[in-house]
Design brief:
This protein is of the alpha+beta class and 395 residues long. The chain is built from 15 helices and eight strands.
Length: 395
């Protein structure tokens, strides 16, 4: 039976057009949806990507709804006096959320429906990001590039050791975030999609001082661990180095100069001259102004076997277990495995290089990770609970 669509007037235009498509805003910040009937909601879900007539797709939709309820209770509402209305826990059809969110004027149930839909939309982007399915393999390939040159020292530090050596105080690998952390991060990002999380994988190198930071970056480039060709320009943040001062100093250096030629007093004076002193614009609103590092995003070409390879290998293994390895030869399984193309793509990871005092500042105080996560959680709460929390404007 064909869906009978409403025939809204041509004007005024809905906010999805004026605020999102024309205005560049985020969909999850918009005032609800306009799907007042279940047939309209079902067609919307179908074009969103979920056919509720297919059991696996319906099951995933229901699971995302249940996960959104749990995240709302355990994270967003934690520490508040707000509670989800009981009717949401008795909901049998998640499409009702779209219908409820379409009620005008918006009542409290519509606003809570909006809040849950914001979380669900973000979870859909997490669950349907193909790269996240291969994170362990991606992570291994990226960290291998660094670890072949990282050598621990007896005093608990590290060396970057290759054609030459650079001492480090600490090395921290940032492995892939868990689902809750990624959800929190996405909920405060305007794009609100998983492809924009550039720090799912990252590494932090800590040197003694700013000169050690420069030496560490030089080492990574000299040994092709990093390549300037694969740096994402818009993601570079230099919160440490006065570049004009650095270039003036380098322009007058004699051939063959190395940092170990500096006397202690000369090193201190040089550090003072090269340290960035001007007021900086903070690009990440959740970072403290005391955070100091050189941070950039590098892309690495990842090579993974075709998904068909594991299936063919499993089939070959089963035939051998059945005592019929000749069937594998008849089916040309070894040749088919060799013929499969690699699955290749570039994957971004974050690199932070900092000196001792900057590193100590993130262990405690306003620049600490705990404080960062608290500010991030507060921002996500404000965004999700638009029109519900007393301090917020209507949804």
């Amino acid at each position: 039976m064909p869906i009978k669509f409403l025939e809204p007037p041509l004007f005024p235009l809905p906010p999805e057009i004026t605020r999102v498509i024309l205005g560049g805003g985020s969909f999850i910040d918009q005032p609800g949806v306009q799907l007042p009937t279940l047939p309209l909601a079902r067609d919307y879900a179908l074009n969103y990507g979920y056919d509720l007539e297919i059991p696996t797709q319906r099951a995933h939709l229901v699971k995302v709804f249940e996960d959104a309820l749990a995240f709302m209770e355990e994270v967003i509402l934690d520490g508040t006096d707000l509670e989800l209305p009981p009717e949401f826990f008795d909901l049998q059809n998640p499409l009702d959320l779209l219908v409820w969110a379409s009620v005008r004027p918006m009542d409290l149930r519509a606003r809570w429906s909006c809040a849950l839909l914001r979380i669900m939309h973000t979870l859909f982007h997490l669950d349907n990001n193909v790269y996240l399915r291969f994170l362990p393999e991606i992570q291994q390939q990226i960290f291998d590039r660094y670890e072949r040159y990282l050598v621990p020292t007896p005093d608990g530090g590290w060396l970057l050791k290759g054609h030459y050596e650079v001492p480090l105080l600490a090395v921290k690998r940032k492995e892939s975030k868990n689902r809750v952390s990624m959800l929190l991060k996405l909920l405060h990002k305007p794009e609100n999609v998983a492809e924009t999380i550039y720090d799912q994988i990252g590494i932090r190198l800590v040197a003694e001082d700013l000169l050690g930071v420069l030496a560490s970056i030089r080492f990574l480039l000299d040994h092709h661990v990093l390549m300037a060709t694969h740096i994402k320009p818009s993601r570079t943040r230099n919160l440490m180095v006065d570049l004009p001062a650095l270039e003036r100093w380098m322009a007058q250096l004699p051939p063959g100069f190395t940092f170990d030629q500096l006397e202690p007093k000369e090193r201190r004076e040089l550090l003072s001259a090269l340290t960035l002193k001007i007021e900086r614009t903070e690009s990440n609103p959740f970072s403290s102004s005391s955070y100091s590092a050189v941070q950039f995003t590098a892309q690495t070409l990842i090579r993974l076997p075709s998904p068909a390879v594991s299936t063919l290998e499993e089939l070959q293994s089963r035939l051998q277990a059945m005592g019929k390895p000749e069937m594998g030869d008849l089916l040309r399984i070894p040749e088919l495995i060799q013929e499969q193309d690699e699955f290749t793509f570039f994957f971004a990871h974050e690199v932070q290089v900092m000196e001792r005092t900057g590193f100590e500042s993130i262990l405690s105080g306003p620049a600490s990770h705990a404080e960062y996560k608290f500010r991030q959680k507060e921002a996500a709460r404000r965004r999700v609970l638009q029109g519900i929390a007393a301090q917020e404007a209507p949804c």
